[in-house]
Amino acid sequence: MAPTPARQATIAAAIEHLRTTPPALVRRQLLDASLHAHWQRNPAALADYLARSTAAPHDFARFFGAWKGAQRVLLAAGLPWHPDDYAPEET
Hints:
Layout: H1 5-20, H2 23-30, H3 37-41, H4 43-54, H5 60-77
């Protein structure tokens, strides 16, 4: 699974949500997400993990895991979660 601009943008959207939304609200949202309990309790650490994962795009397994986690975060928040939602506009 090669990193694509749309997948990277999906992860960036999740990081932004985790870092800009009040932590108590994010924790409530993440209770419904299929994520490890540690990430559900600590949205700031999850945002940091996602950011580190995108910094190493050559590690496809880690990138894929981060992308799927980002989708779960966005889905739990009721935000667009599909990479097509973040695909760059063609000119």
